[in-house]
Amino acid sequence: MKSPHQRESAELLLLCWVFANKHVPLDEDRRYLERLAARAHHRRDLETLLAAARRQDLGDVQLAAEVLTKEQSGPIIAFLRQAVVVATSDGALSLRNHHILRFLADLCGVSPDTLRAIYREVTGRALAAPEDLSHRSHWQPAEPEAEDTAEADTGSTQAHAGEPRASWRDRVRRLAENQWREHKQQQQWRRQQAQQAREREQQREAAAQAERERRAQAHAKRQAEAEAQQREQARQQAEAQAQRQREETAQRQRREQQQRQNQERQQQRHDQRQRQEQERQQQRERQQRRHEQEQRQRAGLQTPSYPIRRALIELELDANASPREIKLAYRRLAQRHHPDRFHGQSEWRITLASQRFQRIKNAYDLLMQHA
User: Which residue, 96, 128, 160, sits at the end of a domain?
Assistant: First the structure.
């Protein structure tokens, strides 16, 4: 009763109680109980339960009955059918099992009519009332044997009645033989009925197992179809997302290409405007130099003095250089010969650069004074 499967343990103990109260327990009954014990995860506990049932300890039976009553939520038809199968497997229902089956039916909440219907379904015959042990008919088959024994004791003293006594013995012997044959035939018929009942029970179990397998296969099929549908939906969603990404990438590339083209056109127009501006600037400078040269010629200017010529040579200019050309030449030469460009070289090299830079600056100052 300490098992986590208390109801199964209680049912199995009560079935062992039925098994222990049979006239002739069969091997088929034992194998049937082993199958039920394996199904209820009690295969190793079957011997313990059988031993408890053989002790006929009503305390164990009462505890199992209480557990079964507490755990049940309605009539337990399947358990009662199993009890009938075990009790009638040898064909003969013992007197004890007559009362045990009625007790189990009442315990399972099954009416007497339902019990009789289950009994007829399993055995193929009606459930008779148990014999009354106090009635004379129960002990009638034993009386001829008692009389026969008494006659045998007095046979030697009554020789004159020997022949009638012998014929009476023959009739009793034939009656006993007939009864024995009928008993064997009835026992054989009962075994066949019990075997058929077990086969029907096995068929019901096989049908139930097949139905469970069919439902499990159907469930597995539905689950597989649902998983396949989910995979297909996931694949379609992935394809749609990949298509959207490709379209977005293509649109982004088109926009970027269009932007580059626009930038290139703008840059080309800008470069063209710069070139045109430079050309116009150069043209204005040439016109300015020609104009200044013409003005100097008209004014009869004299040849520049020696310091001015040296300054022009220092800045690499001609005598007609404009003030703007003087500034550009100064910037160019000052950057080229600035002493900072020779940092880290010899002192002599830095000194020469400083002297050249000073001459350039002096030349620039002189020319700008006379510009």
Answer: 128
pTM over 0.85: no
CB-based contact 97:105 (threshold 8 Å)? no
Residue 261, CB-side half-sphere exposure with 13 Å CA sphere? 6
Domain count, the chain: 2
Contact 322, 293 (CB under 8 A): no
Q: Which of 87, 108, 128 represents a domain boundary (last residue)?
A: 128
Distance CA 1, CA 149 (A): 53
Q: How far apart are CA 40 and CA 8, in angstroms?
A: 6
Q: What is the CATH number of the domain that holds 122?
A: 1.10.3680
Average pLDDT of adjacent 10-residue blocks, the chain of 371 residues? 69 89 85 83 75 83 86 77 89 86 89 92 85 53 41 42 44 55 68 82 87 90 90 91 92 90 88 86 83 64 78 87 91 89 87 91 90 69
**In which domain, by residue range, is 65 found?**
1-128
Q: What HEC string does 166-218 produce?
A: HHHHHHHHHHHHHHHHHHHHHHHHHHHHHHHHHHHHHHHHHHHHHHHHHHHHH
**One-letter amino acid for residue 53 of the chain:** A
